[in-house]
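Pipeline run #58 for the internal structure catalog. This entry was flagged by the ingest filter as a single-chain record with no existing model, so it goes straight to prediction. Upstream metadata was stripped on purpose; only the residue string is passed forward. Reviewer on rotation: M.T. Logging verbosity set to normal.
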Amino acid sequence: MGQITPGPIVISSVFIGYKVAGYWGAVIAMGAISLPTFFYSIAAAYQLHRLRNNLRVRAFLKGIGPAVVGMILAAGFTIARASLMDVWTVILALASLTALVRFKVDASLVIVAAGVIGFFLG
């Protein structure tokens, strides 16, 4: 999972920038990694806002929604299959799901609470 997130790439590049040129090297490396994505996001948001009334674009976005949901469910299923190995993790997963869906608890609080509970269960 860690290999598909941007964290390792960002951390490595900032560390290398720091080693090569100190504080300013780290700042420049962070900017070089972050700014292109930031600008692409702004450009995409502007274009999407501009095209939101286009029927073809709306149809395309309507079709993408279920595909994205399916991909997220497939990823969740893969993670669940690998991590739900005993009764306690299943109970913790169901309690977390209940807290998120039924009681609308903030996700960051659920993650922290599950981590603390998992620490004491493990």
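catalog note: The CA atoms of residues 27 and 45 lie 26 Å apart.
catalog note: The chain is about 85% helix and 0% strand.
status: ready for reviewer M.T.
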